[in-house]
Structures
1.
Amino acid sequence: MKKFFAGLITGIIVAISFTAFAAVQLKVVPNPYPVYINNVKSDVSGYNINGSTYLKTTDFKSAGLDVKYNKNKKQIEVKSTTTGLTNNNSGTTGNNQNPVFLYEGDAKDTTYRGYKAILYNGDTFINAVEFLKKLKMTIKYNTKQDSYQFYKNEVKILETLNSTSEYYIVYENRPYFNVKFLGEYLEG
């Protein structure tokens, strides 16, 4: 009889242990939400564990990014916490400023002389892609001088001195150039 009770007690303990283990089991599925980095859908992997989404935020933080969940859109948004590269151009005004990064809703959409444009802080900026196509120009970014260089027929005709909004901003991951800077080149 003692063996029966010992076996019964052991069985009950084992059954309770398995029940307790089953209660804390995690439900892990691939992340069902899209991840956006600077308003561009990204291929970042993550997991949803018991209804919570987990991404390696250390990877994002080390890249100078901020991670937030947008409840209204039901999406994860990652935005830059820095505003660009350090300005190493010795020909600058000494402000050592970085480019301005804008996102949807930060500026007002408009047009300027037939170009897609935005209004920001009282200045008008035009879409670089449209401008370059129409005038058959090419553009290069000089990382050493932190400047954009405009070429027509392989001859440099225009260059930004630094990355301030006096010259350009980045709106929805595309460069937009200040019409004050482009001036006569807008005449075509």
2.
Amino acid sequence: QSKGQGPLNFINEIVPHNIFDAITDNGKMLQIIFFVLFFGIASLTIMPAKIKPVIELFDGLNDVLLRMVDYIIRVAPYGVTALMAGLIIDFNGNASIFSALAMYALTVAAALLSIIFIFYPLFIRIFTKIIPSKFIQVMYPVQLVAFTTSSSAATLPITMEAVENKLGVSQETASFILPVGVTINMDGTSCYQTIAVLFIAQVLGIDLGIGQLLILIGMTALSSIGTPGIPGGSFVILTMVLTSIGIPAEGLALIIGIDRPLDMLRTSVNVTGDAVIAAIIDKK
């Protein structure tokens, strides 16, 4: 075997030799994730008083970056118009791209709806004593707010009220699980990102190997942990997922124009998933 092609080469590839070089190279996203995880684990071993300034620094940076994302999203429609115009030109006005987009949107919607109406009620039926039909009825107003706001964070107070008062989940469980779930439990986002990446790769004529598919599975699982709970926040993470498996980030132009309703739907899935987890944990 040639140098760098051994069975453990994958491990070597995810360990950054220079973290600053990895940050400036979109193709080294796995190295950044490895560094961040290692940094976080090491931070847990430091005395709270000493690590507090570091936590405050990153909290402040997080707030600033989220505000930057918010500003970008506000002007995104103008950029989307230009991107879609260029896309139509690249495909020589071929209408097949629009039928492909329609099929993509239907696939994402069907997958997300199956999570809400099949898998979540099944989990509720198996792991709790809550009647699935009651769960769906209680969560409908919450899902409606999530759908209209496209923000898990904005829906959180309503989710907590429904889970505590109507599903009988204890305040201790709800007040811990639901805020955490807003950040780290994004089933809808993971589902959407997987379908989006496969669609973009197919349209661009990029064949994904087994290794790339395994990276995709891992990246979508990891990237959903920490996706901003704001409208359009998943696009920031999707860019990372695309570049990590060698797909040009410009491929986002294919789907960004029709993403808003899908964003609304996957937010509904995310908040419903938070309620499911809270109910299951509370009944254990």
3.
Amino acid sequence: MLQQTSSNFSIFAVDDGSDDETFDKLADKVDDAADAGVPMRVWKKENQGFTISIKRAIEEHSDSKIIALHGAGDISKPSRLEKQYRCLETNAGIIAVGCECDVIDHLGEIIAERTTPEYPERDLQDGTIPRPGTHGECMYYRKQYQKCGGYREPFEYGQDTDLWLRLYELGDFYSIQDKLYQKLKSTDTIQGGREYDKRIRQVICSGAAIKSAEIRNSNGDDPIGELDDFHFSELCSITRMGEIPEPTIRGLIRVSFYNFMEGNIRNSVSALNIMRLDDVNTVLKQVPKVIAISIYKKYYKL
């Protein structure tokens, strides 16, 4: 971030309760940032998870007109912020901008590429989510972020899906067709049986975000926004209102398949049991595609 071609930004780094040397390493960069003309603050806090941490960082500790994200371990190319800022400021109607990115391992080797349509669109019929990018490389206006409600705490996972669906209702997205970001592939995978609960929660949270958008676009009500006290069971109930979104069905099939391949039959069956008999036709259409993609990802470790 200190190699950006523009210094017209500040850094607010969040250490979400790490027990290693993360805070010290970040603190050591404050003087380097000052030398580069970039104000930098480091906030060490108790562990609260990504959603609450980024929500508090944006809403309690910063007041900038524009918000740019940057994931831990990731790399922003030098021209990233300048190009994204220029895109936002010179294109009326665009309120969020991302870019293409490479996925890298801990050695810095490129192991995959992530592309995004230049003009991301939404189609709730087939579950197409309007994503300006993969989250870490995105930039958006604070005004619209606040107007749509920002990150919502119930979304321990799928918080980006929920945010993009609400933000898209206020303006257009754009993805710069240039690789301005490198995303570190985490070794803390949530695909396997040992992390079954996390994976299921991710699928259900994203499904609840899609279903909430469907209902919101149908009658203006937001089933999530109307609840004061949230539990995961409510997200499950919202996801199962009417037809379960196709991306959720694909996700459940994927979780079931991974667990079956690992010999965890109980979790495999449990994932499928979340669906209903009414979803059978959709399931049958999705199975071959999902299994093919799952096998590819498993053996190529993407």
